[in-house]
Design goal:
The strands form 3 sheets. Strands 3-2-1-4-5 form a 5-stranded parallel β-sheet. The mean pLDDT is 87. The protein is elongated, with a radius of gyration of 27 Å. The protein has 490 residues and is of the alpha/beta class. The chain contains 21 helices and 9 strands. The longest helix has 17 residues.
């Protein structure tokens, strides 16, 4: 992957382009803001508002906003209601996932703070669950159904309420890099955004889903859409996610402070409505090599709030670490138990990574069971979990798994010659005491004892042994050696 010389965005982001100097299109567009006459743009905005102001009579709605309740939604409603003195109606699509406390508060707050009516769509939960599993397993796009409604529902409602002036936030492709990389006020092409582009009907039908269930996922007819005039707020004002957040906070918006520190985000105020939805946005990481931490550090760099050097460690620490609360809510909603998501039926083992093309068989997958066993909490484990881990262990104890065919020694994984002996010791304990394997008479255990009694004695106690050469490597006197001895004693 190539990375932008100015920000942290890689060239794997769909649709982004790099110039001859190695700078991404998003950074170039941001630099070009200094050449925009923003006073003239705002006058355009005033004229645009005046075109529709009062169009449905005294007290009638004269514009609409597609909202989630987030910081940008607060900013857009504030601009239209408080600054431009329009009378907006708000359209929202729920995602049906458990909401954060901040998310619950914010959707209520945007109505109460600005005095606006919200019409909310609660999608068909049965259809959503069917399509979530189908699209997650086939395309890695679990929230397509909800995302599609987020784009289509406001269009349907704007047509019904005769509010052609339909507000969207930023032009994502232009602001951050994408296929529709053109500066325009019109959001008419928003429906073709790659996140929720239409799917062939034959892909959607079946498994209990009928055409009747999908009517709202279809865009309004060309005739109806021609009567609408949707727009991007980012065309008329210099869009800044952090400044939007500050304005939103001044009007009662809550972030995730004191509620949740997300392991894979670099901020606490974007996409905070629910946890499970973030699995979708995190899936950019295995697909394209970047996720939320990259997205926001890139913006911070453009805004002058962070240097590239400061951003890189944050990305390395956070980008790939999907928060377990997201996984829990996602699995609960879809009806998954978490472990089977990683099961590779062809090799009869757990995958080390859900979407990684390079994978290995890892012995330490069974290791956490040791703690539960020692604490007497074996009964907390589902029978399905125990069964899968036992099958995984059987694969580990083969030459195709974690047994070195030359020495008979046990490696930490099928792709490594390093034993990490403390982890091997914990795993052996689990195999015997939790999963019921008879390992006392096997060559594996004898080889392991040889490591502890001969090789380590000959040098010093080390946590790492290179299995193929029976050599101690790495640092010595590791604290893990104490843990290893404890488990061997047990």
């Amino acid at each position: 992957m190539r990375y932008c010389k100015k920000c942290t965005m890689p060239d794997t982001r769909p649709g982004i382009t790099f110039d001859a100097e190695g700078v991404c299109s998003a950074c170039r567009h941001y630099e070009n803001r200094k050449n925009v006459d923003w006073d003239a743009r705002f006058k355009e905005f005033e004229a645009y508002c005046n075109k529709y102001r009062g169009m449905n009579g005294p007290g009638g709605y004269d514009c609409a906003v597609a909202v989630s309740g987030g910081k940008d939604s607060h900013f857009q409603v504030w601009m239209l209601k408080e600054v431009m003195h329009m009378n907006p109606i708000l359209f929202s699509v729920e995602d049906n996932f458990p909401m954060t406390q901040a998310g619950i508060h914010n959707l209520k707050n945007i109505s109460e703070e600005f005095g606006c009516t919200i019409i909310s769509c609660k999608p068909n939960i049965k259809v959503q669950k069917i399509l979530m599993r189908k699209f997650f397993e086939k395309y890695g796009k679990p929230t397509w159904y909800v995302d599609r409604l987020i784009y289509t529902f406001p269009l349907h409602m704007a047509a019904k309420f005769n509010t052609p002036m339909l507000c969207y936030g930023e032009n994502v492709s232009f602001e951050y890099g994408g296929n529709a990389d053109k500066e325009t006020y019109s959001a008419m092409g928003q429906i073709e955004n790659g996140v929720a582009v239409g799917m062939p009907m034959e892909e959607l039908l079946g498994d209990g889903v009928t055409e009747k269930d999908l009517s709202l996922t279809l865009a309004p007819s060309a005739e109806e859409r021609a009567k609408l005039d949707p727009f991007y707020m980012s065309y008329f004002v210099p869009w800044n996610s952090y400044k939007n957040y500050q304005i939103a906070k001044a009007h009662g918006f809550h972030d995730l402070t004191h509620e949740w520190d997300r392991t894979h985000h670099a901020e606490n105020f974007d996409q905070i409505d629910s946890r499970a939805y973030l699995v979708h946005s995190w899936l950019k990481y295995p697909k394209f090599g970047h996720a939320a931490a990259t997205d926001y550090t890139a913006r911070y760099i453009r805004y002058g709030m962070m240097t590239r050097e400061e951003a890189i460690p944050i990305i390395k620490e956070r980008d790939g670490k999907l928060d377990p609360l997201c996984v829990r809510d996602f699995c609960d909603f879809c009806g998954y138990t978490e472990l089977p998501l990683f099961w590779d039926e062809n090799r009869s083992c757990l995958k080390a990574n859900l979407y990684s093309p390079v994978d290995s068989v890892v012995l330490a997958a069974v290791e956490p069971l040791g703690v539960l066993h020692f604490l007497g909490l074996d009964d907390r484990l589902a029978a399905e979990t125990i069964t899968l881990l036992a099958r995984h262990a059987e694969t580990c104890l083969t030459a195709q798994g974690c047994v070195d065919p030359e020495t008979g020694g046990l490696k930490l994984s099928s792709t490594s010659n390093n034993s990490w002996t403390s982890k091997v010791a914990l795993s052996l304990y689990v195999l015997q005491n939790v999963l019921g394997f008879d390992i006392h008479m096997g060559q594996i255990l004898e080889e392991f004892r040889r490591w502890c009694q001969v090789y380590a004695k000959r040098t010093t106690i080390s946590d790492q042994i290179l299995v193929s050469r029976r050599e101690v490597i790495g640092g010595c006197y590791y604290p893990r050696a104490v843990t290893m001895a404890f488990w061997l004693y047990q």
